[in-house]
Known about the structure:
CATH topology: TIM Barrel
Number of helices: 10
Helix content: 25-40%
Largest sheet: 8 strands, parallel, barrel
Number of strands: 10
Strand order of the largest sheet: 3-4-5-6-7-8-9-10
CATH class: Alpha Beta
Amino acid sequence: MKYRKLGSSDLTVSEISLGSWLTYGVGVEKDLAVRCVDRAFELGINFFDTANVYGRGAAESFLGEVLAKRPRDSYILATKVFFPMSDEDRGLSRPQILKQIDASLQRLRVDYIDLYQCHRYDSGTPLEETMQALSDVVRQGKARYVGFSEWSPGQIAAAFGLPGVERFVSSQPQYSLLWRQPEKKVIPLCREKHVSQIVWSPLAQGVLTGKYLPDSPPPADSRASSETMGHFIQRLTERPVLEAVQKLKPVARDAGCTLSQFALAWVLREPNVASAIVGASKPEQLDENAASSGIAVDPALFARAEAIAAAVTPAS
């Protein structure tokens, strides 16, 4: 496993990180989930990403239980705040941030969170209020650093324009061969501000594994066929997308790796990406994904893959 520095922080994170969206505490049986976390450590993964809203606290509670047996300095823990936790609890107001950080710490069974992220931008709360509350969380020792997910370039710039507040060190955008929007504005701005990307859905929710075939129903044990995990994958399983993905397989073969490894290596080719978050419902998936760290791929093969994906990728 290779490691990269996270923005302007002193955190060094594994190039492959383990996420818990739609999986732990919700969609994956507990014993399998525990085995996945244990296998992550064996593979050198030191970065774990979650959010308070995943399973309305269930994912954090699961991670808190399974990580409690390990030394606190053996892993880097990230969580998020914004989405509704109840009919009244939502957003990035000062009362909410102070309330939700304490709830997350309790569920995660830790004294501090390494990276506390705004899950989205809260247009209903003044940015100054949000940033001051995040700064207080850091200065109280409850979080070491702060980040954001899916903020616009204007919102990012505005946060950096505020005096006397903590600076973001990370951005968490969707980014993959099938979704390249951050490249145009977000990544250049973040590079300038010393903010690293922690990308979600680098395998396009499993579509870039190549396991979904245009003329076949999804595998029975896949995300697309799961009632609890399959709600967000519809666009990615449209026929033109699946046909393009099948054309990527020979390119990956020429690179000497699986399609999953090729897709992750493609994301990691971008120096501003510190880590690619993967989901895993069984340890074997982590074995394959972790092997993508450090893979050397001919840039000409990446260019071939980009040309294939361009036909079904939204314009950036």
